Amino acid sequence: MNTSLKITKIGNSAGIVLPKDLLARLRVGVGDTLYVTEAPDGIRITAADPEFAEQMAAAERVMREDRDILRILAQ
């Protein structure tokens, strides 16, 4: 998907308007939060919080490595 977006003046700031089809692809709407991160190939805009994703990945590693201990604690 290649889309060009024009930067417009919004008060004392600048912004872009996201088309409906792009909002649908991101599964976001008015009031939702988008996250901007730097990537090796440029800038990435996602609806997923990258910090939360890192925390979940760490939790999954712990659960996988210590599954026997967690099973005993759950009893």
What does this protein structure show overall?
The protein is α+β, with helices and mostly antiparallel strands. The protein has a single domain, classed as Ribbon (Pemi-like Protein 1, Chain: D). The chain is built from three helices and four strands; from the N terminus they run ββαββαα. The strands form two sheets. It has a two-stranded antiparallel ribbon. Strands 3-4 form a two-stranded antiparallel ribbon. The relative contact order is 0.09.
Strand and helix map with partners:
Elements lengths: L6 E4 L2 E4 L3 H7 L8 E5 L2 E5 L3 H16 L1 H8 L1
Antiparallel strand pairs: 1-2, 3-4
The arrangement of helices and strands along the chain is EEHEEHH
Q: Termini separation (Å)?
A: 50 Å
Integer tally of domains = 1
What's the count of strands? 4
What oligomeric state is this? Answer: single chain
Q: What average pLDDT do the residues reach?
A: 86
Q: State the strand order across the main sheet.
A: 1-2
CATH architecture: Ribbon
Which structural class fits the helix and strand makeup? alpha+beta
Looking at the structure, the CATH topology is Pemi-like Protein 1, Chain: D
Helix content: 40-55%
Number of helices: 3
Q: What spatial form do the alpha-carbon principal axes imply?
A: elongated
What integer value in Å does the Rg equal?
19 Å
Give a short account of the largest sheet.
2 strands, antiparallel
Give start-end ranges of low-pLDDT stretches: none
Strand content: 15-25%
Instruction: Give the CATH class.
Output: Mainly Beta
